[in-house]
Amino acid sequence: MDKSKWRIILSIGAGAALLISIFAIAFRGNLWILGNNEDGSDALDKDKVVFITKSTNSAFWQSAYAGANAASAEYNLDLICEGPDSEEKYEMQNQMIDEAVKDRADAIILSAIDFEANADAVNRAAQKGIKIVVVDSPVDSSKVKCYIGTNNYEAGCMAGKEALSNQAKSLKIGIVNFDKNTQNGQMRENGFRNTVMKDDRSEIISSINVKSTVKDAKQGTIQMLKSHPEINVIVTFNEWTSLGVGYGVESLKRGKDTQVIAFDSNVKSVSMLENGDVDALIVQNPYAIGYLGVENAYALINGQEVKSKEIETSSILVTRDNMYDEKSQRALFSFD
């Protein structure tokens, strides 16, 4: 090959190398422009949402996590789901809120254990620019952008109406509620009381608040029934107390004599409904609570207005008569 042809080949090669270098520099520049904000952070990072629940091991919260994870995948968010190991530890929730602030979360979704005691931590987070969405149980803060959950008062009324369906000549009622400082339980009890007391047959014989655990609810129920054997209706308001009341009624063999109206569902409470230790379950929609919580957090992060400050999710009454209906089955086993 003569020298002139070599010069042509070398010129083409050099030109190609130069073009490749230019494109590489431009490409790196575009990546830098797209990939970094003014503060040096990576703009391609996902927005971070922290979902802090009352606990982590109940069927209710597992279903809520499933909904939240589905929404986070849809909206391309970095989602962290966490909570204390029992529904009494509001201090641990506050620590998790403060930790989310340190980790530069863009939004926090909270189900407050204590209406008042969780408020300061929520306010601190909001002052840092973090968007606050509350689900299931409210908190005493004006910084909350959106509440999502069951209409707790109406759910209590639903339980009251079911109690009034009892054909007994007199209704001797026992109430087993959880922490007095947890707002959703108190709202449910208020709705129940206001409904049943419209009927002259109704008399509230005993009302107790227990820790939100199966053990404490069972012990409280047994003590209540032993002290007041005339009780023929018991109502309780969340998943753990529902199980505890069911076990208490079962241990005293009072299933046939006592109408039990409870909240939420899992495999054990559905079994209690089948065998007669529980007569009705008010079943909420935790999957929707989790999904809508994340969806609205995403909207707030992106400067959008939420559709409503309060978003109600559905709840239905499930009894032995309708528990095998398609609608009831979807509610009872929403996580599956």
UniProtKB/TrEMBL annotation:
Pfam families in alphabetical order: Peripla_BP_4 (PF13407)
Any GO CC annotation of this UniProt entry: cell envelope
Cellular compartment(s): Cell envelope
Chain ranges of the Periplasmic binding protein domain: 49-305
Keywords tagged on the record: Membrane, Signal, Transmembrane, Transmembrane helix
Main location as per UniProt: other
Transmembrane segments: 6-27
GO molecular function: carbohydrate binding
Family: Belongs to the bacterial solute-binding protein 2 family.
Protein name (Swiss-Prot/TrEMBL): Substrate-binding domain-containing protein
Taxon lineage: Bacteria, Bacillati, Bacillota, Clostridia, Lachnospirales
